[in-house]
From TrEMBL:
It comes from Panthera pardus. GO terms for cellular component: plasma membrane. Keywords: Cell membrane, G-protein coupled receptor, Membrane, Olfaction, Receptor, Sensory transduction, Transducer, Transmembrane, Transmembrane helix. The chain crosses the membrane at residues 28-51, 63-82, 94-120, 141-161, 196-224, 244-262, 274-293. This is Olfactory receptor 9K2-like. It is found in: Cell membrane. It comes from the Eukaryota. Putative odorant or sperm cell receptor. The keyword Transmembrane applies.
Length: 320
């Protein structure tokens, strides 16, 4: 497989991203939808990071993880959306071999890092609710930094392995990737290599990446639910559940879309594209809304920033 992969590198110089199989007149509508969603992603996630960095009250482990989650959402959507929007206007819809490698590498890095970061956030909520008196001791700044750094390192290692495996395959057939970005399954469809060893290694990698994060999230929430049900006051239970509902919503959307995409049979590529949209664009757009709308601290910090801007604007108007 290695020799064939080497030959493949000298033969294939670019790929064609087929994108969505719709009528040409709908490309403008799709471009505008992508543009609107991407603008909301930029506004929401940059806004969330700005609020967290500028408000001292949000200098806590929970918001440290949330700020990094916004950073990841911003960057992995930026790996996908701009190229997809360009291709709505492009006749060739081509992407260079190096560009395809880079896109897959960065996307895999950030999506895996997000999975580990969501697991770290679940652990943070577990400590906050089940051991509140020890929260500040156990969730120290050092541990939080290590958890976030570990998420990026795991994402990087996973991405290097996954990207290396995919691009040692031989692409001796069509160069047309039936997707709107370079992803593993569409690339597999245009390869003529033997997939037995490749799929065994891929399954092993997926297992050691996905299973630990899901197990941490499930066990954390089992303990959280058990602890919350022991709270006698209805108000106390409601407050405890409200701190976790946003995170659970994000986890459900992300993992639900990923599983749906990778479990969809190859004969339904359009369904895979729709599922991909959920975790490449819809989830990064919704995350800031979910976390801000259900969080009093974030809403108060946002009001404070907007209040300062309005006051400054009024002062300028008064002077002039």
């Amino acid at each position: 497989m290695g020799d064939r992969g080497t030959d493949n590198h000298s033969e294939v110089t670019d790929f064609i991203l087929v994108g969505f199989r719709v009528r040409p007149e709908l490309h403008i509508l799709l471009f505008l939808i992508f543009l609107l969603v991407y603008a909301m992603i930029l506004l929401g996630n940059v806004g969330m990071m700005t609020i967290i960095m500028t408000d001292p009250r949000l200098n806590t482990p929970m918001y440290f993880f949330l700020g990094n989650l916004s950073f990841i959402d911003l960057f992995y959507s930026s790996v996908i959306a701009p190229k997809a929007m360009i291709n709505f206007w492009s006749e060739s819809k081509s992407i260079s071999f190096a560009g395809c490698v880079t896109q897959l590498f960065l996307f895999a890095l950030f999506i895996v890092a997000e999975g580990f970061l969501l697991a770290a956030k679940a652990y943070d909520r577990f400590i906050a609710i089940c051991n509140p008196l020890l929260y500040s001791v156990q969730m120290s700044a050092r541990l939080c930094t290590q958890l976030v750094a570990g998420s990026y390192i795991c994402g990087c290692i996973s991405s290097v392995l996954q990207t290396s495996m995919v691009f040692t395959l031989s692409f001796c057939g069509s160069r047309a990737i039936d997707h709107f970005y370079c992803d593993t399954r569409p690339l597999e469809r245009i390869s003529c290599s033997d997939f037995f060893i490749y799929r065994m290694i891929s399954f092993f990698l997926s297992s050691i990446i996905i299973l630990p994060t899901i197990i941490v999230i499930i066990i954390s929430y089992l303990y959280i639910v058990s602890t919350v049900l022991k709270i006698r006051s209805t108000e106390g239970r409601k407050k405890a559940f409200s701190t976790c509902s946003s995170h659970l919503g994000v986890v459900s959307v992300l993992y639900g879309a990923v599983f749906f995409m990778y479990l969809t049979p190859d004969r339904f590529p359009e369904l895979s594209k729709v599922a991909s949209l959920c975790y490449t664009l819809v989830t990064p757009m919704l995350n800031p809304l979910i976390y801000s709308l259900r969080n009093k601290d974030v809403k108060e910090a946002l009001r404070k920033i907007l209040g300062k801007k309005i006051f400054l604007f009024n002062s300028i108007l008064t002077v002039t």
